[in-house]
Amino acid sequence: MREHGGNLDLAQQRFGGRAEDWIDLSTGINRLPYPVGEIDARYWSALPSRSEIDALRKAAQHAYRTSAPVVALGGAQAAIQLLPRLAPRGRARVLVPTYNEYAPVLSTAGWDVEEVSELDALAGADFAIVVNPNNPDGRCYSPKDLLALLPRVGRLVIDESFADVVPHLSLASQAERPGLLILRSFGKFYGLAGLRLGFALGNATDIASLAAMSGPWPVSGAAIAIGRRGLRDDDWATATSARLARDSVRLDAMVQSQGWTLVGGTPLFRLYDTPDAPAAQERLARGQIWSRVFAQKPTWLRLGLPGVESEWTRLSEVLSR
Amino acid sequence: MREHGGNLDLAQQRFGGRAEDWIDLSTGINRLPYPVGEIDARYWSALPSRSEIDALRKAAQHAYRTSAPVVALGGAQAAIQLLPRLAPRGRARVLVPTYNEYAPVLSTAGWDVEEVSELDALAGADFAIVVNPNNPDGRCYSPKDLLALLPRVGRLVIDESFADVVPHLSLASQAERPGLLILRSFGKFYGLAGLRLGFALGNATDIASLAAMSGPWPVSGAAIAIGRRGLRDDDWATATSARLARDSVRLDAMVQSQGWTLVGGTPLFRLYDTPDAPAAQERLARGQIWSRVFAQKPTWLRLGLPGVESEWTRLSEVLSR
Question: What is the per-residue pLDDT for A167?
C-alpha cells in the first residue's frame, strides 16, 4: 500500500497505544462526523434497490448543485481505480504534488504518465488530472482557468474531494460538458471515510461506462441510508463549513508558537512548513496525536483539524511541552 | 441492470405496498441475519486500516477453512467485475444456466464467451466459470471432478456464493493451486447483502492482482467490524446451517399442495417446477410475497426461505387461498 494519511497502524507500531487513544490528524477527514443515526434493518439485509440508488444520486445532485449524470461509487478512490479503463490507453498528465494514487494507478494500467507542476502544462494530454483544491498544499484553480483548459485535453478529471467547503471552486454544475469528469468524496467533509462513498459526475456516456464497470451494487445499504440523509441536510453542511473555516484559523494560530508557517490548505487540513517535519511528527506522536509527513518534502507537516474541545486541549498541551 | 432477485422496486411498481410490507423471497439471502450489533464510531469515521483488513482476511480464512491468500471485496459481484482483467482476453466458458452476470461482464470486456451445459465442455477454456452449488438449480459438482478439470483450463473460477451451507463441496482449502480462483459471498449466508462483502481466494499472484485492482479501501468499516465477528462465530454458523437445512425441507413440504415439484436448490433457496411460474409469482405477490421467475424458463419459480414464524404463516395462507 502506498503512503497515505490515516495509517494509524504505523503510529501504534512506532509509539504504542490503542487506536482509540490516538487523535488522528493525519488525514483531512472531518472529526465531527455527520450523525450516523438509526439504520433500518433492510439496509443491512437487502441488496440496494435501483430506486434507493437513484435517490442517493439525486441527493448528490442536490448537494453538488448540478443536474449532471452521477454515479455512486465506493469512495472517490473507487472512481480512480476505474479511470484507466474509461478511455483507450494514452498519455496522462497529473498536476503535482498531489494525491499519490493517480499516477501509479494509471501507469500500472499501461498509461504513459507524466507529472507536471503547472496547469498549462496539462494541455495536450489524453487525461489531465487536477485535484481542486489540491491535497496536500491547498492550491486552488479557478473554474475559468479549468474551463479554458478543457478543450485542450482529451479528458479533464477534476478531483473535488475537498471542495465541499469551497463550493465556488466546483465545476460540478458543468460536469456534463464533453471531456469533463468530476470526482467527489462523501467521507471527508461528512467525516465518514469508513462508509466508502463517493461520486463521479460527467456526461451520460462516461457515467454509464463507470456504472457498468462498477456493477449493480457498488455501494452499501448503509452508505445509501446515511448518504441520502447527509447530502440533503443543508443546515448541517452550512454549519459545518462555518465551523471548519473558524477552526482552521484557530489551528493556524495555535501552531504559530512553533514557528511553523502555513504553506496552504483547506478548511479540512493545513500544510505547514516546519524546520524538521519528522521531528515535529514524533513530538506530536509522543502525545498520541498523529500527523502526516511527506518523504519527498522533509519540512512539510500536514494536520487535520481537531474535533471536540478535549482534542484541541491535548494538541495545545503537546505543543507547549 | 440485468434481471436479478431482490428487485423489490418491480414488485412495488406492479403490486403496490411499501418495501417493508413485502416478504422478499426472490433471493437466496438468509432472512434471519447475523446480528449487526454495536458498531464502534471509528469504523464509520476512519479509513479502514491495514491491520483491520488483515484481521478480516484471517477471519475469512478461518470460516472458509483455508490458509490460501484471500482478498476482501465489495461482494462476490465486485470480484466478478474485476475478473476480465485478471488475464489477457481469451476464451471464457460459463456452465449454464447460472448467475447471469458472468457472461455479459466478460463479453463486454472483450472476452469470447461461450455458454456450455456440461462440466466437461469447459475443458480448453482460458477462463472456466462454475457456480457450486449452482444458482438457480442447486446443481452440485464434486471437488474431485472440479480438480480433474483444473489442469484442462487456464483458470477455473468457482463461485461458492452458496457453499457456506455445504462446506464439503468447497475447494477453498485448495484455492492456492495454480489456475484455481474461489469466490465467496458474505451477504447471503449471513443475511447481510446490503453490507457488500465478499472474498476471492487463490494463489498469491492472482490475489495480489485483484487487491491492486480494487485499491486500498475496497470494503467499508462496518463490513470489517461485522465480517470479523460473523466469520469467527462458529456457533452461529452451525446453528444457522442446521436451521436452514430443516427449513428448506419445511418449504418443500409446504408447496407440495400446489403440485410444484422440486427442480433442485440449496438450503438457502429452492427452485420449483410449476405449471405457470408467472401466474404463481403473481398469486404470491398479491399476498406481498416476492419470488423469482426466469424469462427463459416459464415453469421455474425460485423461492428463498421465510425467516420469522409470521412469514411462514403468511406464505401458508397465501398458498391456501
Answer: 96
Asked if A75 lies within 8 A of B217 by C-beta distance, the reply is: yes
State the pLDDT at residue A139. 97
Mark yes or no for CB contact B191/A222 under 8 Å. Answer: no
Q: Are A151 and A168 within one domain?
A: yes
Q: B310 with B202, same domain?
A: no
Q: What angle do CA B203, B170, B73 make, to 5 degrees?
A: 55
CATH code (residue A302): 3.90.1150.10
Q: How far, CA to CA in Å, does A282 sit from each of A13, A256, A293, B47, B50?
A: 13, 18, 10, 22, 21
Cβ contact A222–B220 (<8 Å): yes
Interface test mutation site (partner B, options A47, A54, A82, max chain B beta carbons within 10 A): A47
Q: Within this chain, do residues B309 and B266 fall inside the same structural domain, yes or no?
A: yes
CA A3 from centroid of its chain's CA atoms: 15
**If pLDDT is split at 50, 70 and 90, which confidence band does A7 have?**
confident
> In angstroms, rounded to a whole number, what is the distance separating the alpha carbons of residues B124 and B156?
11
Average pLDDT over every residue of A82-111: 96
> Which residues of chain A make contact with B27, given a CB cutoff of 8 A?
47
Considering B232, B256, B272, which residue would you say is the last residue of a domain?
A: B232
The answer to whether the CB atoms of A194 and B44 lie below 8 A apart is: yes
Enumerate residues 6+ apart whose C-beta is below 8 A from B243.
B32
Q: How many domains does chain B have?
A: 2
Does residue A175 have a pLDDT over 90?
yes
Q: Are B91 and B194 in the same domain?
A: yes
How far is the C-alpha of A165 from the C-alpha of A304, rounded, in Å? Answer: 14
Q: Answer yes or no: pTM beyond 0.80.
A: yes
In a domain, B1, yes or no: no
CB pairs under 8 A between A and B: 159
Quick one: which of B148, B152, B203 has its CA closest to B181?
B203
Of the three residues A217, A232, A247, the one that is the final residue of a domain is: A232
Residue A285 lies inside a defined structural domain of this protein: yes
Q: Are residues B68 and B28 part of one domain?
A: no
Its ipTM equals: 0.96
The dihedral sign for the CA sequence B51, B57, B63, B66: negative
> What is the distance in angstroms between the Cα of B192 and the nearest Cα belonging to chain A?
4
Q: Is residue B2 part of a domain?
A: no
pLDDT tens digits, one per residue of B275-306: 999 999 999 999 999 999 999 999 999 999 99
Give the domain extent around B277: 8-33+235-319
Calculate Rg over the CA atoms of chain B: 20
Residues A166 and A59 reside in one and the same domain: yes
Q: Same structural domain for residues A226 and A243?
A: no
Closest C-alpha to B294, from B269, B259, B317 = B269
Residue B3 lies in a domain: no
A147 and A293 belong to one structural domain: no
3-state SS string over B229-271?
HHHHCHHHHHHHHHHHHHHHHHHHHHHHHHCCEEEEEECCEEE
